[in-house]
TrEMBL record:
Catalytic reactions on record: L-cystine(out) + L-arginine(in) = L-cystine(in) + L-arginine(out); L-cysteine(out) + L-arginine(in) = L-cysteine(in) + L-arginine(out); L-phenylalanine(out) + L-arginine(in) = L-phenylalanine(in) + L-arginine(out); L-leucine(out) + L-arginine(in) = L-leucine(in) + L-arginine(out)
Protein name in the entry: b(0,+)-type amino acid transporter 1
Alphabetic keyword roster: Cell membrane, Disulfide bond, Membrane, Phosphoprotein, Transmembrane, Transmembrane helix, Transport
Subcellular location: Apical cell membrane
Similarity comment: Belongs to the amino acid-polyamine-organocation (APC) superfamily.
Source species: Esox lucius (Northern pike)
Cited InterPro entries: AA/rel_permease1 (IPR002293), AminoAcid_Transporter (IPR050598)
């Protein structure tokens, strides 16, 4: 009996491709996988060279305008004055300026209310609403429970965000959960969070969104057939490289990119919702006539449905990762949460209703890209608009994921829980470029073997464990840190509910269907203690001796310096 791979090769030679175990004809305009891969690689190379040229041009343009203090600052790096290590006589960046008018080497407050809302909305509305609808429907079994899960996910995200609003205005440090766990439970729990999130959760999330971007970008070129995996992964790689370069070049540029793509995704959401309303007004309600027929209500099914739905809502906590760069965080943080999350919740429920107004449950489950299928069914001959704007949406979500991941890595490095070079800031652009590049490299590793649905399930399993601990930290600090100012105060019953739901989402899939992968995930989280004791708690001198020359060479290469300490 021939293997699946042999069948695929034979089908490809005959002009066919395999789709879900069935043979579907290739589009006559579709080129071979090899030539497409070559074209994609060339595009990646051209885009990379373009971004590097832009960076060089910006550097050369600013070379003649550099103040004497900035020039002296660069010379001090070359002379080895700015090195890492707690025992080094490190010169303060301010002391190197001698009164020159140069910005302090810190992350500057350049994110306002509009950009904050764009970060929340833009990160939440990414790939989930365009991929997860069929996953939620598959686990619930019927339209009614599916819509209920989407609405309940919105309520849960809002309740969780209220907890984060209190924490973010009480502890105005970047890093999100990391800073709150540090204050409530100490460095060990915070380190385990940073260990898991920096190494696994953040880059895998970035990889998932980038793969979704690539899937939707390549689907129009392979009608009726799944795009080759090599093409998808090459496009995802291009997405990661470009986004990391943009975030390294400028905070404002990254914010402008986020604002633009947020506007684009809200536009396509509006188009889908309006199209659904028109269909319902025309009487296309047969798919909603018996919404609870065939529903599954088991413990594990509901938990897995929440996993997939909450993946689409993930991002409601992203603004807490950049609190130090947020203008007037006491006002803008809770206001952005109050505006952004309910807006996304309403959009999600309406979008799912729109899907069911045009597609049966069978059609929705069989669709490789739900939003694209909806566009082909409803918006023809303008169906090309949907995949184009979905590509915009996923690209914007990937940009937001990269933006916040870099800040978490930066804060963990600043607190000594990661290597110090990850806490350094670009001398010219005032961005945490080492942290951003490190996160991008890990993301590229996860892209190679990635499967979107598997990553979603295990990402949610670990992430919701930390969400629950963070909500628990709010309860703990109500009694242990009463002296802290709380401009926004969340009712304790809400925090208790978030803790209970979080641990339900952690335990539900394990109880319903135990798998070894959950054990591996837990072992990985706890294995961080093997690195914590020698490298963080004891701080052996030989580790500093090894890292000192590496840090200095990386400083010279990237032109980065340690951040100034602020009160």
């Amino acid at each position: 009996m021939q293997t699946d791979r042999q069948a695929e090769i034979q089908a490809d030679r005959q002009g066919f491709c395999l789709l879900d175990g069935m043979i579907a004809p290739h589009c006559p305009f579709t080129c071979s996988s090899v030539s497409v891969c070559v074209c994609v690689c060339v595009c990646v190379h051209v885009c990379t060279c373009f971004c590097v040229c832009v960076h060089v041009w910006v550097c050369m343009r600013g070379q003649g305008n550099m103040s004497e203090g900035s020039v002296r600052k660069r010379q001090d790096i070359c002379n080895g004055m700015t090195i890492s290590g707690p025992t080094s006589n490190m010169a303060s960046p301010s002391s190197l300026l001698d009164g020159d008018d140069v910005k302090a080497t810190i992350l500057h407050k350049e994110v306002g209310l509009v950009s904050g809302i764009s970060l929340i909305v833009g990160t939440m509305i990414g790939s989930g609403i365009f991929i997860s609808p069929k996953a939620v429907l598959l686990t619930t079994g019927a339209v009614g429970p599916c819509l209920c899960v989407w609405a309940a996910c919105g309520v849960l995200a809002t309740l969780g965000a209220l907890c984060y609003a209190e924490l973010g205005t009480m502890i105005t440090k970047s890093g999100g959960e990391y800073s709150y766990l540090m204050e409530a439970f100490g460095p060990v729990v915070a380190y385990l969070y940073s260990w898991t999130t920096v190494i696994i959760l953040k880059p895998s999330s970035f990889a998932i969104i980038s793969l979704s971007f690539a899937e939707y970008a390549s689907t129009p070129f392979y009608p009726g057939c799944t795009p080759p995996m090599v093409v998808t992964k090459c496009l995802a790689t291009a997405c990661v490289v470009i986004i990391v370069l943009v975030n390294c070049l400028s905070v404002k540029l990254a914010s402008y990119v986020q604002n633009f793509f947020t506007a684009a995704k809200l536009l396509i959401i509006l188009v889908i919702v309006v199209a659904g309303i028109v269909l319902l007004a025309q009487g296309n309600t047969e798919n909603l006539s018996d919404p609870f027929e065939g529903a599954r209500t088991s413990f594990g099914s509901i938990g897995l449905a929440f996993y997939n739905g909450l993946w689409a809502y993930d991002g409601w906590n992203q603004l807490n990762f950049i609190t130090e760069e947020l203008k007037n965080p006491y006002r803008n943080l809770p206001l952005a949460i109050i505006i952004g999350i309910p807006l996304v919740s309403v959009c999600y429920v309406l979008v799912n209703i729109a899907y069911f107004s045009a597609l049966t449950t069978t059609e929705l489950l069989q669709s490789p890209a739900v939003a694209v299928t909806f566009g082909e069914r409803v918006l023809y001959p303008l169906s090309w608009v949907v995949p184009l704007f979905v590509v915009f949406s996923t690209f914007g979500a990937a940009n937001g994921s990269c933006f916040t991941a870099g800040r978490l890595t930066y804060v963990a490095g600043r607190e000594g829980h990661m290597v110090k070079i990850l806490s350094y800031i670009s001398l010219r652009n005032y961005t945490p470029s080492p942290a951003l590049i490190f996160n991008g490299m890990l993301t590229l590793i996860y892209i190679m073997p990635a499967d979107i649905n598997t990553l979603i399930n295990y990402f949610s399993f670990a992430q919701w464990a930390f969400y629950g601990l963070t909500a628990l930290s709010l309860i703990v600090m109500r009694f242990t840190r009463k002296e802290l100012n709380r401009p926004v105060k969340c009712p304790l019953p809400i925090a208790v509910l978030v803790v209970l739901v979080s641990f339900y989402l952690v335990l539900a899939p394990i109880v319903d269907k135990p798998e070894m992968e959950y054990l591996y995930c837990t072992i990985f989280i706890l294995s961080g203690l093997l690195f914590y004791y020698p490298f963080v708690h004891c701080r052996f001198s030989w580790t500093r001796q090894v890292m000192k020359p590496i840090t200095m060479h990386l400083q010279l290469l990237m032109e980065v310096v340690p951040p100034e300490k602020t009160e």
